[in-house]
Write a structure and sequence with these properties.
Jelly Rolls
């Protein structure tokens, strides 16, 4: 029996290590009509902040502190779904951390079992802080997309340290985020142009048919 418990603990630990976002506390934006401003009092605790950008130039902002010797662990992810998984790099969300810009530097896929999501990690950093530092992180959109900003590494579930315009996500919230329908702005613009061209063609053809006799007489007269 003891051997069985020991093996079970080993397997559980291995699975947790293979799926690090499993341990994150999930949060989403509480009110999209308000600024997405978030304070994190302990950035070592694992968090995942889920959001949806509707247009270019939107942002989610976080503030927190880390002390000398702390490890700054963060990632930016998108769902491995259409349309995010076919967007060009310049269309993906980006990060600005204390005025330093981070853009997509990789695309690593993985399956997150807790929420049953296929995700793509597009930015991933892990570094030790040399001196006490106040951090300001902005997740900035380059168009319509869903995103996840993950922060921290300590697996603490019963302590909430995120405040501001956020709320704790449950499994239903995660499913709703993951299954949201995103329609790219360019697709909307293309549909408008296609409809405009169709209308113009219809007007031209109708004009030709209505005045066909006059047009024929004009041509033969010349």
């Amino acid at each position: 029996m003891k051997n069985f418990i020991f093996i079970f603990i080993q397997i559980s630990g291995f699975l947790l290590l293979q799926n690090p976002i499993f341990a994150h506390q999930p949060f989403g934006i509480a009110d999209k009509n308000q600024d997405s401003y978030i304070e994190v009092s302990d950035a070592k605790i694992s968090h995942a902040f889920y959001g949806i950008f509707d247009k270019k130039g939107e942002q989610m902002e976080l503030n927190f502190k880390l002390s000398a010797g702390d490890t700054f662990v963060f990632s930016l992810l998108i769902p491995d779904q259409d349309p995010e998984n076919i967007l060009a790099s310049e269309r993906l969300p980006e990060l600005v951390i204390n005025n330093e810009k981070f853009t997509s530097n990789q695309k690593s896929n993985f399956y997150e079992p807790y929420s049953r999501m296929n995700l793509i990690r597009i930015i991933d950093e892990n570094k030790v802080i040399e001196s006490d530092t106040d951090f300001n992180v902005k997740v900035i959109s380059n168009g319509q997309s869903r995103f996840v900003f993950s922060l921290g590494y300590q697996e603490i579930f019963n302590k909430t340290v995120a405040s501001g315009n956020v709320r704790r996500f449950n499994s239903g919230d995660l499913s709703e985020w993951y299954n949201s329908i995103i329609i790219l702005e360019e697709e909307n613009n293309n549909n408008f142009y296609y409809a405009l061209i169709l209308v113009l063609l219809t007007v031209v053809i109708s004009f030709i048919l209505y005045f066909r006799h006059d047009i024929q007489n004009l041509i033969f007269r010349n």
